[in-house]
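Last lecture ended with a question: if I hand you only a sequence, what can you say about the shape of the protein? Today we answer it with a concrete record. The protein is Glycosyltransferase family 4 protein. Below, first the input exactly as provided, then the predicted structure, then a couple of comments.
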Amino acid sequence: MKIAYILNTYPQPSQSFIRREIRALEATGHDVFRMAMRPGDTPLVDPQDRYEAERTEYVLSEGKKHLLGASWRAAKRDLAQFWQAVKTAVTVGRVSEVGVLRHLIYLAEAAFVAERCRAEGVTHAHAHFGTNSAAVAMFSALLDGPKYSFTVHGPEEYDAPRALSLGTKIAHSDFTVAITQFGRSQLCRWAAPQDWDKIKVVHCGIEPQKFADPAPMTDGPRRIVAIGRLVEQKGQLAVIKALAQVQSDVHLTLIGDGEMRAMIEASIAEHKLQDRVTLTGWLDEAGVNRELAAAHALVMPSFAEGLPMVVMEAMAAARPVIATYIAGTPELVQDGTHGWLVPAGDIDALADAIETCANTPLKTLIRMGDAARQRVLERHDITTEAAKLAAHISGS
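The predicted structure:
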């Protein structure tokens, strides 16, 4: 099959899961045509991301003249069809947060995308995220472009399902992907019941070969690591407050950066935790792997999630997980077997879980890490998950 991937910005360092999915599809013989509205604004340091950028067509770089020309040709091709797409764009735009004009721009982008897909012989388009990329895929299909599907990740899409017109996008799609069963349940809330069967679960995947030889866990004072953007939904302030209650010798490493860094630093100082917390900023893949290798557990204190890739990667590295009982996390992490689950926002429960981890014998932590590794490799092998997606595409 020749499949178009339609994205807003691509590639970005945080989108390694998309890159893995595309590569896995190509490894099984499918041809993937990459189209993004624009390049990302983050410098690409990973050679794999630079390679992806070289293979991606950027729609907005074509300029207004080409997009308007594609729209004019779409209208000439089938005026009734074009007018129906315009009405859909206006209807969706009226309930969105970005308005009708922005959706008419998406329509112009879609006209260009539809032309390019026809020229390339694309038989199916797949978008990631339920935002403007899914809108472009939908409008492209309405303009005689390829049929489409899209993957919804959450949690941001679940915060604004009406504004994103998720029900409309699902209705027009051949199928829609959720990355967890929880995500599927949320999409069922906004889809018409007759469209529920369209909503499939395909997990994000990891490459098992990259975790073929996990670093052994060593004894000594317990080290836990948190990885993610320093933003409210990730809950790093909660883990600082929880650590202040922990009496055992535990060191926390926070990997990442973001708008809440100053607030987190202030909380560390307020609780006099400067000797127990290290903020590294963003690290490259090798740096993250080093910190995971030195850790006894990953802590993920999030208030909102889809299913974090860092949880999968920590489990693949044979490390137990301390996480909040939200979204799709409990589908992967089983409390007491692969780590500890606590209610989101419950500082006392989070502190108790960290204390329990700190006092768990090393051999038990190793056993939990091994069980976590086995589970994630069984459920999130990218080759298996990409094959599921390909089967849905070929059968749609």
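Comments.
1. Residues 99-120 form the longest helix (22 residues).
2. The chain has a mean pLDDT of 96.
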